[in-house]
């Protein structure tokens, strides 16, 4: 962890940055940084914009995403190292646009991260048994455990609970696998709609031991080809939970106990497909629809999923801007999670074609219903 405090008393911590990256991953697997922003009392700062650049040095690198801190003050940043040569050094400057400061200017101090580009050293393994033929379709997604198994190659000691194991999956960074008997670790991706939108995904795993030694896996490739659920035609507008929006993105004990978690649907905004053509009145023209809620524990594992029929609100029963109480979906949904997070999405079938929520609008909220 690398920490610095600027003159406005804003604390920026770069969490466990990897200091080497292998050349064969450059331009294929984005380099990932996790940054957390707090005040000096370690209260998270939400909505801060994280900017990472090379400071004009060579090789040039590019930040791939617009990184804004979440309710925990954290954000994942993805960097393109395409132009980085083997045995070169990449120097990254991390800065924060202090939206919480009165002048809303970039901070004067940067956190500098030095990354060395090394030759390929595949000393870890990431095995995805469900994608043996490289394709995830509806049958595989709905019926199989989507688990990636991580192990070390040619290691007599195996994995340790002190190892930092990270899965890079397309544009996602996934932390915190389940360690099993120090021999292997598992990332359970079952039911995670946001990871299985239609498209091609390249993935890999890093294992960092307590001494900072890094093991890389080979690069895996899978193709998602789904016709049902949230993996097809992602054009729809996401839902909102106003109570959680007003609570820094958290669903808490009071909201859960008093059934205040209301999911609102926007039925009036215009929807466009990939060709820029309008999808006319999707809720009014839908013949069927399903609301989908998934809950995750603090390790990112799916522990509860629920679906809810939208037929009473769409098609012949169309209702403007309707809402659903999560208590009616599953009154114990959030109790099952306890502390973790939940995602909310839906799909509609129109003229035999399935439509789903746009990937960047699948809503995720933090959950803590255990209370003090």
Describe this structure in words.
The protein has 372 residues and is mostly beta strands. Helix content is 8%, strand content 43%. It is built from six helices and 31 strands. Strands 21, 22, 26, 27, 29, 30 and 31 form a seven-stranded mixed sheet that branches. Strands 12, 14, 15, 18, 19 and 20 form a six-stranded mixed sheet that branches. A hairpin with a 5-residue loop joins strand 18 (199-208) and strand 19. The model is unreliable at 101-108 (pLDDT under 50).
Short description:
The chain has 372 residues and is mainly beta. Helices cover 8% and strands 43% of the residues. Strands 21, 22, 26, 27, 29, 30 and 31 form a seven-stranded mixed beta sheet that branches. Strands 12, 14, 15, 18, 19 and 20 form a six-stranded mixed beta sheet that branches. A five-stranded antiparallel beta sheet has the order 1-2-4-8-6, with no helix packed on it.
